[in-house]
Design goal:
Elements lengths: L1 H23 L9 E3 L18 E4 L2 E4 L4 E4 L2 E4 L5 E3 L2 E5 L2 E5 L2 E3 L1
Antiparallel strand pairs: 1-8, 2-5, 3-4, 6-9, 7-8
């Protein structure tokens, strides 16, 4: 019976680091692709606040919620060193509209 317990402990000792490695290595850039037939409304004019050290302004945009478009106001994104912020935007390909999520470009 004793060797069975040792094997069980060894199994957990090997599985836990593997599980943690899988969670840590999950890509953070994975995105859900949103495809819509209806074009988004025109962009709203937003007042851009004064610069805030350590943050980049992410302008507002239209988000599709399954029934229609809803406005998402602009907000601050913490700055990533040696990168610039590319705001999210809608792009058309044929008759469809695709949402490209905002992201940092190095």
């Amino acid at each position: 019976m004793r060797p069975v317990r040792v094997l069980a402990k060894l199994r957990y000792a090997l599985l836990i680091p593997l599980a943690l490695a899988a969670v840590v290595s999950t890509p953070t850039f994975a995105q859900t692709e949103v495809i819509i037939r209806d074009a988004p409304p025109p962009m709203r004019v937003e007042a851009v606040p004064l610069d805030r050290p350590g943050y980049a302004w992410d302008r507002g945009h239209w988000r599709y919620d399954g029934r229609g478009y809803a406005w998402v106001p602009g907000h601050w994104q913490p700055v990533m060193r040696n990168a610039r912020w590319e705001p999210g935007h809608w792009t058309s390909r044929g008759p469809n509209w695709y949402w490209i999520e905002g992201h940092w470009i190095r």
